[in-house]
C-alpha cells in the first residue's frame, strides 16, 4: 500500500481569548492532539495549521472545533473535554442526515439541573437524549461508562425542575436477580444502599444535598430495589431501571407494566455483564425480543467509543469485548 496522502490545512478562529483557553497552558491540549492523531500542529495568532495524513488532519480540526466550542461555553477546559472531542471527532464523516441534525443550531439538548448544565458528549449520547425527549419508553444498551444512567437521571431532574413530572423513581436489582437481601447484615436500608449508591451519587451531582434529602423524605424522589415496584402504578413520574440485564423476564414484565399516565421509563443495561445464574435468560434480552415490533419505544445502543470515563476504560471495554467475541467464535 502507498503512503497516505499528506495535507496541510489552516483555519482561523474568531476569538483569540477563547482560543488560548482551548489550546491549554503551554499548548498542552494541542500536544495531546498531536500525539494522539499523529499530526503536526502550529499556531500563529488566531490561526491553527495542521499537517499530516489527510484523514488525521480532518480528525484534528473536528476535535479542535469541539474543544473551542467547549472553551467558549464553559470558560475553561479539562481532560474530559479533550477525551470527548477525540471521541466525537472520530465520527466526523457523518451521513447527510446526521450533518443536517448537527447543523441545526436551534436544537438544544442541554439537560438543566440545579448544580450543572449537562450536554451530550458523543453522537450516541445525543441520540439517547433525543430518544428520552421523544419517547415515553427508552432502552439504553451498552457498556459501563457511557453515561446511560447519568444522563437518564439528569433528564429526570430537568423534567422535575420544569414541573413536567412530580416524582423520580430510580431502581435496580439489589443483589443479582434474586435480591437475596436477607443474607446481608443490617436493616433494610443498610442492606440495599450499597447497591443503589450509584443512583444516589448521580442525584447529588445534580441537586444540592439538602434538596435531594428533602425530596427523598417527602417521597418526591425514590431510590428503591426492583422488588419494591411490584403492585404499583406509577403516574406523573420518570422511572429509571439501572442494571436491567440482571432482571429475569418475569421481573422485567412486572416493571414495564407499572407505567401509568404521564410517566416515562428508561431501562438501562449491558447484556455483556449479566450476573444471572447460568441458564437463566436476562429479562432485558427477553424484553428487547418481545418488544421489537412495538412502535413508540426508543432503543439506543452505545459502544466502547462512547465511554466518557478515563480513556483507559474504553480500551479495557474493547479488550474484553474482543476476548468474549473470540471465545464465542471458538464455542460456535
Spans of at least 5 consecutive residues with low confidence: 91-106, 175-179, 181-185
Reported for the largest beta sheet, the result is:
6 strands, parallel
Computed structural class = alpha/beta
Q: How many independent structural domains?
A: 2
CATH architecture of the largest domain: 3-Layer(aba) Sandwich
Query: Strand tally, please?
Result: 11
Quickly name the level 1 CATH class of the largest domain.
Alpha Beta
Distance between the termini: 34 Å
Strand content: 15-25%
Strand line-up in the sheet with most strands = 8-7-9-10-6-11
Order of helices and strands: EHHEEHHHEEHEHEHHEEHEHEH
Topology:
Blueprint: E1 6-12, H1 16-23, H2 28-37, E2 40-44, E3 47-53, H3 54-74, H4 79-89, H5 96-102, E4 111-112, E5 117-118, H6 123-134, E6 137-141, H7 148-161, E7 167-172, H8 188-204, H9 209-218, E8 221-225, E9 237-241, H10 249-256, E10 264-269, H11 283-290, E11 297-301, H12 311-331
Parallel strand pairs: 6-10, 6-11, 7-8, 7-9, 9-10
Antiparallel strand pairs: 1-3, 2-3, 4-5
Structural description of this entry:
The protein is an alpha/beta fold. It has 2 domains: 6-94, Ribosomal Protein S8, Chain: A, domain 1 (2-Layer Sandwich), CATH 3.30.1370; 108-331, Rossmann fold (3-Layer(aba) Sandwich), CATH 3.40.50.300. Helix content is 44%, strand content 17%. A 6-stranded parallel β-sheet has the order 8-7-9-10-6-11. Strands 1-3-2 form a 3-stranded antiparallel β-sheet. A hairpin with a 2-residue loop joins strand 2 (40-44) and strand 3.
Summarize the structure.
This protein has 332 residues and is an alpha/beta fold.
Amino acid at each position: 500500500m502507498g503512503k497516505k496522502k499528506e495535507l496541510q490545512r489552516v483555519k482561523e478562529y474568531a476569538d483569540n481569548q477563547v482560543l488560548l483557553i482551548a489550546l491549554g497552558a503551554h499548548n498542552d491540549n494541542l500536544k495531546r492532539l498531536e500525539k494522539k492523531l499523529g499530526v503536526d500542529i502550529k499556531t500563529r495568532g488566531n490561526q491553527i495549521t495542521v499537517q499530516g495524513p489527510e484523514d488525521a488532519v480532518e480528525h484534528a480540526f473536528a476535535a479542535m472545533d469541539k474543544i473551542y466550542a467547549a472553551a467558549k461555553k464553559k470558560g475553561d477546559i479539562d481532560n474530559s473535554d479533550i477525551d470527548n472531542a477525540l471521541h466525537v471527532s472520530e465520527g466526523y464523516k457523518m451521513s447527510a442526515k446526521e450533518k443536517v441534525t448537527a447543523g441545526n443550531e436551534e436544537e438544544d439538548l442541554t439537560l438543566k439541573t440545579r448544580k450543572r448544565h449537562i450536554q451530550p458528549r458523543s453522537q450516541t449520547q445525543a441520540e439517547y437524549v433525543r430518544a428520552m425527549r421523544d419517547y415515553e419508553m427508552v432502552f439504553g444498551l451498552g457498556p459501563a461508562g457511557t453515561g446511560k444512567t447519568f444522563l437518564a437521571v439528569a433528564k429526570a431532574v430537568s423534567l422535575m425542575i420544569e414541573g413536567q413530572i412530580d416524582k423520580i423513581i430510580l431502581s435496580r436489582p439489589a443483589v443479582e436477580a434474586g435480591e437475596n437481601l436477607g443474607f446481608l447484615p443490617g436493616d433494610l436500608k443498610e442492606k440495599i444502599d450499597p447497591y443503589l449508591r450509584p443512583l444516589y451519587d448521580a442525584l447529588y451531582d445534580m441537586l444540592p444535598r439538602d434538596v435531594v434529602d428533602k425530596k427523598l423524605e417527602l417521597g418526591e424522589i425514590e431510590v428503591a430495589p426492583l422488588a419494591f415496584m411490584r403492585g404499583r402504578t406509577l403516574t406523573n413520574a420518570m422511572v429509571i431501571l439501572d442494571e436491567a440485564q440482571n432482571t429475569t423476564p418475569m421481573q422485567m414484565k412486572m416493571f414495564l407494566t407499572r407505567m401509568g399516565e404521564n410517566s416515562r421509563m428508561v431501562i438501562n443495561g449491558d447484556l455483556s455483564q449479566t450476573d444471572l445464574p447460568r441458564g437463566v435468560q436476562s429479562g432485558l434480552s427477553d424484553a428487547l425480543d418481545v418488544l421489537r415490533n412495538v412502535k413508540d419505544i426508543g432503543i439506543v445502543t452505545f459502544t466502547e467509543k462512547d465511554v466518557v470515563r478515563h480513556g483507559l476504560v474504553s480500551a479495557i471495554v474493547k479488550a474484553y469485548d474482543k476476548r468474549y467475541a473470540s471465545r464465542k467464535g471458538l464455542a460456535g
